[in-house]
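Can't paste images in this forum, so I'm doing it all in text. The chain is below; anyone willing to post the predicted structure tokens underneath?
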Amino acid sequence: MKIITKWCVVCCCVLAITCCYAGSYGDVAAPPIQHTYTLTLRQAIALALHRNLDVRSGYIQRISDKYQLAEAYWDFTPKYTLEGQTSYTQATAAGAKSRSMQYSLTPEVSLKTVYGTRYTITANNPYNYNTSLPYSYNPGWSFKVVQPLLRGFGREVAEAPLNQAIITEKTTRLTLKNTLISTVTQVITDFHQVMLDQRSLAIQEIAVKNDLATIKEFKEEIKAGKKAPASLNDVQTTFYQDKIAEVNQRNSLEQDKQNLLIVLGLSPFTHVNVTDPLNYRGEKIPSVHHSLEVAMHNNVQLQTDLLSLAADRISLLTSEDDARWQLDLTGTAAFGGGSGPGINSGFRSLYNGKNQSQSVMLNLNIPIDRVDLKAAIVESRSALAQQQIAVLQEKWQIQTNVMNFLRQLHTDLENIKLAILRRKYAYQSYQVTRKEIAVGRSSTFELTSKSLNLTDSAQAVVSAKITYLDNFANFDQELGITLQRWNLHVVL
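Text version of the structure:
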């Protein structure tokens, strides 16, 4: 797979060399962590497409899939066989001994056309010797043509196996594409979750730092006799509440990093940090009409269902053809192939007209009361009708999902604006309360409440941005344009 971005290749190479493994995938001993690698979102995506185990397995499967299609095309190309045989016989009859030897080399060429016609050319080259006759060479060749007139007649029927193989090939390509899209989307989601954890942890650490500063101020005021000792209880309660949240957030960060390592295809012992500005998309959210048009052309599941529908139509065509009468026209021509020496031997026997034959034959086969063939037709028609319903249902589901995603994205943008305003006024309210409490116009409980509200509002801004980015990633996956969105040029 080629990622047409130089820094992506450099990132993959560096991490592939420096990531520490314990000798094999099965080892459990943890190697020492010597370095911490910092990844941006684009670098994480490029790395996952290079190392993710599902992606690697998908490309291995593609090797087998491509050969299956090559085999289907090979069915309509000339096929060559070469058969050789030699024998030696020694016998005694009525006291007389005899010996005989025979050598034979038989090449054959056959061809099946897209109209069902089958051609076969066979050349026999027997070379004989026995005690009663001298050496003799009796070559011969035959030409055979078989043309189906009913069952197996027509290009659609003859090419049905090839068309099925082409559909299977396209389906497997879509399967790999879906794996790549799902991997990229999962990287985005897991990466953003780590970013959210890091930002939340940083906000929580600031809250703890502010709590310690407030405790220090209160202790100085208590020491100076300006406040009662009991006023310190609310501040210390807030401090320990924020400290507990910090400890839990740090644990969540480490767990989510492990989830990110899995999708990146890295050892659990690799130590990574992530960094990204979390700038939510500046481009305009597309219209419903444009989004539906894109989804109908690119949604992976819909394209897979349409291919299955085409495959079911071919299966019905094949089932109906199997139930037809079989009427084959066969024509043969043979030259040479005599026995013994003289005019029946040598290459001249192929054209001197002494040994030749031509024939034309009609072969008729009528299936009578074949319940199995009728059942196959019924099953094929039923499968086709069910798949048509599945395609219609998938289209409706895509239309519903696209409209829901668009509504959600507009809601997310509004939530981001509201969260930013909330944080702004929460900060102003917290600062005002600190000034009021310094002159005795506010209570300690009100200050701690404003502090917690400020922390929550700061985390809400980060959460709102990440929610929007994650929903946009899922929206791209629904449209089937994730790879295009990130300018990822991959080989399927």
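The chain has eleven helices and ten strands. The chain has a mean pLDDT of 86.
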